Amino acid sequence: MKAAVVKDFTAPLVVEDVELPEPGPGQALVKVLYSGVCHTDLHAAHGDWPVKPTVPFVPGHEGVGEVVAVGDGVTRLTIGDMVGNAWFWSACGACEFCETGRETLCPEQRNGGYSVDGSFGQYMLVDAAYAPVIPPGVEPSAVAPILCAGVTVYKGLKESEVRPGQWVLISGVGGLGHIAIQYARAMGMRVVAVDVADDKSALARRHGAELAVNALTDPDPAATIKEFTGGGVHGGLVTAVNGAAFSQAVGALRRGGTLALVGLPPEQFPLDIFSTVLFGLTIRGSIVGTRADLAEAIDFFARGLISPTYTVRPLTDINAIFDEMTAGRIDGRVVMDMSAS
Ligand code: 8ID
Ligand code: ZN
Asked: Which EC numbers does the record give (predicted)?
């Protein structure tokens, strides 16, 4: 089968023939139809984070495809089922986090396209107990971005504790952010968005943001947001891949507000102790979502409430796609068509 392989953190991916994987006990082999491209795949390919994947590996954790074989003991999936892979690929099922509804914190978890080969190939393995099942009638290319971007922002919005009718800030209107605006609206929130380009502001408005700020041209984005919302946003989600956006988002919070950090630039940001304490702010991290969060996120999509903006490209474009992502030139998400490779 063909796959895009990371061989070296400083070199482009190589699209080449690799051996077809065999499903072990509890696993299924999936013929991949489409895979979204997440900025996490780019961080993975560059070895950006403290815990690095082992090269060579195949990235990709927004894969959608058809089960073509199952390993021993698999009863949840059968041949012909439409399933996906996810960043949260499997977990131990027995630790204190798995047992208390916080399985994405499991120290033994495996991650799709990171510690297990992912969906940037014509076939992939999934764990039959953890793979999301795609409901019938759903367009497989359009649902792909839900498997990471969708579930991550849906969970992050829950973590922001913003209630219907209140203001939420979406910082970064890329793959995650433009979908976050749609979930926020579907959850009854009012949206202000921030990015650093006018085309991103247009994308944000198209999906229902009431205010879209260009942080490069607005002299004081936090002040603009505070004025527009009458005191600041009740909560927010930072999906931007830039440390400066994080401090700016803290500055846009209303007293008592909560900020969910989602973007993962390999940087730090200064947190002002005085205002955090005096204004009772909550700053928390949010990592993808549990199997239940993912099923809920897919259900929002299947009911027609979420329509990702995306472009379909062949797998052989992967290095060009990464270049465009680095330059911030992607409108929404790119979804790769594995049959076109
Ligand atoms: O579970 C998680 N926490 C999770 C899940 C999935 C992805 C976290 N992530 C992380 C990725 O690893 C990445 O660091 O979220 C980040 C965003 O992923 P993405 O949405 O797939 O990336 P993108 O499509 O490239 O969008 C990033 C946007 O940020 C904007 C860019 O213009 C782009 O639209 N941006 C930048 I770069 N600097 C900005 C700034 N200063 C900014 N927006 C606002 N202010
Ligand atoms: Zn992702």
From this structure: 1.1.1.1
Are the CB atoms for 206 and 185 separated by under 8 Å?
Answer: no
Q: Is residue 340 predicted with pLDDT exceeding 90?
A: no
- Ligand 1 centroid to residue 160 C-alpha, Å: 17
- In CATH, the architecture of 150-285 is 3-Layer(aba) Sandwich (3.40)
Whether 247 lines ligand 1, by a CB cut-off of 6 Å, is no
- pTM equals 0.98
Nearest one of 14, 23, 28, 19 to 1, comparing CA atoms? 19
145 lines ligand 1 (CB under 6 A): no
Pocket lining: 288 vs ligand 1, CB cutoff 6 Å:
yes
Which residue's CA is minimally distant from atom 12 of ligand 1?
40
**Taking phi first (over 0 means left), then psi (-120 to 50 degrees means alpha), and beta for anything else, what does residue 98 get?**
alpha
CB of 171 closer than 6 A to ligand 1?
A: yes
Give yes or no for a contact between 149 and 129, defined as CB atoms under 8 angstroms apart.
no
What residues sit around ligand 2, an ion, with C-beta below 5 angstroms? 38, 40, 148
CA atoms of 243 and 43, how far apart (whole Å): 15
Q: Which two tokens mark 229?
A: 């919302």
At 218, is the pLDDT very low, low, confident or very high (cuts 50, 70, 90)? Answer: very high
First to last CA, the chain: 10
CATH architecture for the domain at 2-148+289-340: Alpha-Beta Complex (3.90)
| Strand pairing report for 333-337 and 310-314 | parallel
Q: How far is the CA of 74 from the centre of ligand 2 (A)?
A: 26
Q: Establish whether residue 200 lines the binding site of ligand 1, counting it when its CB lies within 6 angstroms of any ligand atom.
A: yes
pLDDT digits (tens, 9 = 90+) for 2-48: 999 999 999 999 999 999 999 999 999 999 999 999 999 999 999 99
